[in-house]
Amino acid sequence: MPERHWTGATDGDLGTATNYAEGYTPVDGDDVIFENNAVDVDAGLTDLMGVALGSLWIAKSFTGAFGTSTHYAVLGAHEVHIGHNFGGSSPAGSGRIKLHLENVGSAQTEVTIYDTPSSPTDANREPVQLLCDDPEAVINVRKGRVAIGPDADDAPSLHELRVGFSTNRSADAQVYVGPGVSLTNVKQWGGSLLLRCGAQEIIQREGTLTTEGIGAIASWLVEAGLAIPNALGAISALDVFGGVADFLRSPEVRNVTNLRRRAAGTVKWNSDVLQIDSLDTGGDAALGAA
């Protein structure tokens, strides 16, 4: 695929041909690369709408702002890579990557976030803010601070969110998902995840996962880590086979239709905060009001 390298030689406009080293505005199938550059992308943020890029690469060596404090850059790409740095240097990265991903249609969008700065450009915001129109999209977060659909009126869609880690399992990734997001699956291997929307399936193998708001969860498997189900939406099936599910962080009454706990798992609850329709403790394990 042809590559287009951002230079920002003329201005900060995505649609200006002379802002790319090759002298051409990106078209369908192009691989667009932002690296070793500090020129803000702050104009023409919708000029590439409708273009299905092959891939979008925003390296950690790109230290300019991508989007403005009030507007997302709107792009469509089959692959999106943010914050990668494969050399021995330690670039600062961009404190604002505000990206609205269009549905490219012919194939799902897959996003990988490698790292972000710890301090954002915008107060009370995360360095990476994402919207996504593709209901089949997959977002992978290895490290950094990421918000998906951060505002109450955002309504992005994605198929799967995967939260992992780079070197520090508990602290590398900090992810927030807003209340308007349509989310199917969550898989978590580390980090902390705050979920304010519902989901069809959660598989938690490590890390801390907190739910808030009113989103319902169809299936939640806790194999390790800490689950904090504060959301008022019902959980249809909660399997605590390891780690801890702590219902005592919130005094509000919540409901679990089917709860299964095995000896390696712990559920903290009492009847004031949790209603259980069907309980399976595996015969020799007992839940306790902790």
What can you tell me about this protein's structure?
With 290 residues, this protein is mostly beta strands. The chain contains no helices and 22 strands. It has strands at 3-5, 31-34, 52-58, 73-82, 97-101, 110-113, 128-132, 138-141, 144-148, 157-163, 173-177, 182-188, 192-195, 199-204, 208-211, 217-222, 226-229, 235-240, 243-246, 254-261, 265-268, 274-280. It has a 22-stranded parallel beta sheet that branches. The model has no long low-confidence stretch (mean pLDDT 94).
Describe the SSE topology.
Layout: E1 3-5, E2 31-34, E3 52-58, E4 73-82, E5 97-101, E6 110-113, E7 128-132, E8 138-141, E9 144-148, E10 157-163, E11 173-177, E12 182-188, E13 192-195, E14 199-204, E15 208-211, E16 217-222, E17 226-229, E18 235-240, E19 243-246, E20 254-261, E21 265-268, E22 274-280
Parallel strand pairs: 1-2, 2-3, 3-4, 4-5, 4-6, 5-7, 6-8, 7-9, 8-10, 9-11, 10-12, 11-13, 12-14, 13-15, 14-16, 15-17, 16-18, 17-19, 18-20, 19-21, 20-22
Strand content: 35-45%
Secondary-structure element series:
EEEEEEEEEEEEEEEEEEEEEE
Oligomer: single chain
- What structural class should be given to the helix and strand makeup? mainly beta
Distance between the termini: 58 Å
Largest sheet report: 22 strands, parallel
What's the number of extended β-strand segments? 22
